[in-house]
Structure formats: C-alpha cells, structure tokens
Amino acid sequence: MIEIVLASDNRKKLSEMAEILGQGDFRLMTKAEAGFTDEVEETGTTFEENSFIKAKAVRDATGKISVADDSGLTVDCLHGEPGVYSKRYAGDGATDSERIDFLLKKIKETGAKDTSARFVSVITCVMPDGSHFNVKGVCEGKIVFEKRGENGFGYDPVFMPEGLGKTFAEMTPDEKNAVSHRGRALRLFAAEFLKRYRKEVE
Ligand code: IMP
To answer: Which CATH number characterizes residue 32's domain?
Structure first.
C-alpha cells in the first residue's frame, strides 16, 4: 500500500478523492491525521501554483508523499472568473449559497446569453525527495440560473456538465466522479503515479 497525505480541509473534496483513490493501491491520510494543521495561504495566481504550494507545505511538514487539489470554475462571459478565486469570490466567510448568488448576479450583469463554463482541477503530487508532477482535469458545461439539487458542494447546484441535462448537485457521487474535473484529474494522477513510482514504493 502506498501511503499518501491529502492536503485539503474540505470534507467534500476529501470524500471525492477517497472515492477514487481509496479503492486501489493507496492508503489515504488527511493532513490532520499526518499531524499538520496549519492553514496554507494560497498566494499563487494559477491552479498549478496553488496546488503545488499546498502539496509542498504538507510534504515539508510531514516528509510524506503529499497530494493537493486546486480547483475552480471559469466562466467565459466573465473572462474566466472566478477561477483561482472561486472559494473567495463573494468574500471570506461567505456561504456556498451566497457565492452562487454572487456568481449569478455577475453573469446577469453582463447580459450574456451564453453561460458556458468549465470546472478545472489540478492535482499536484510532491514526493518525499521533493520531486513533483501535476495533472489536470477539465469538465465543460454551463451555468444555469436556478439552483438545482442537494448533493455535492460549492457551485454544484448551478453547474450543468455538457450533454447530461442535470446539475452536479442532482447527481450521485459516482455520477459526478465519472465526469467531473476532479474525477478526471484523480484518475490521471493514479495512472501517472503508478507509472512513475510503483517499483520504488512497493
Ligand atoms: P480551493 O481549490 O480549495 O482553492 O477551492 C476551490 C473552490 O472552487 C471551492 O471552494 C468551490 O467553491 C469551487 N469548486 C471546486 N471544485 C468544485 C466542485 O466539484 N463543485 C463545486 N464547486 C467546486
């Protein structure tokens, strides 16, 4: 079994990561279980930078293989916003519902009819020796103006992936993982990790 530390505090993200990685060759630990409880400041301006910052902080503190997801929503009529600022879009301390309302208000203000958008997830893995790699998963779709569904988290109630006729929040966890940005990135991560390190870690 390959022990890896997941560098996230978001319980919904952790459970999506565990669904995909927890069934194979990996034994997952949260960063708290690995003894790391600090907040890591996301000072980067790209998903790649922030994902690396989070994974490296946990690897530096624990010495273990560390894996971080940095993700967000980019909306075309908002010129890519909220992007890396997805979590902070409506200010610190806002709820998911307030963030969605803020997003819908911003889109309505543009007057755009086309609400095409995509979710992006960059997963970075930092190894004990400091070497690292990242993979990226994308899910194309559009924003709908009415919240639909109770599952998932974040912007899920207003994001409808291409061709599926329901929002992420109307899907079961398995349905979402099959098409989501994070699901795709995690499957790429698992394949890439095993290709690079299987011999070393077994
Ligand atoms: P971070 O990667 O922790 O900086 O935050 C990513 C933010 O993007 C989350 O807090 C959500 O607002 C949004 N986000 C990322 N992935 C998803 C998803 O799968 N569904 C809904 N919102 C998401």
So the answer is: 3.90.950.10
Residue-number span of the structural domain to which 179 is assigned: 2-201
Structural domain tally of the chain? 1
Q: CA-to-CA distance for 150 and 12, rounded, in angstroms?
A: 13
Provide residues with CB under 6 Å of ligand 1. Answer: 10, 42, 70-73, 86-87, 119, 152-156, 168, 180, 182
Query: pTM of whole model > 0.85?
Result: yes
Q: What is the pLDDT of residues 172-198, one digit of tens each?
A: 999 999 999 999 999 999 999 999 987
CA of 193 to the centre of ligand 1 (A): 23
| Burial group, residue 202, by CB count within 10 angstroms (0-12, 13-18, 19+) | exposed
pLDDT in tens, 34-87: 999 998 999 999 999 999 999 999 999 999 999 999 999 999 999 999 999 999
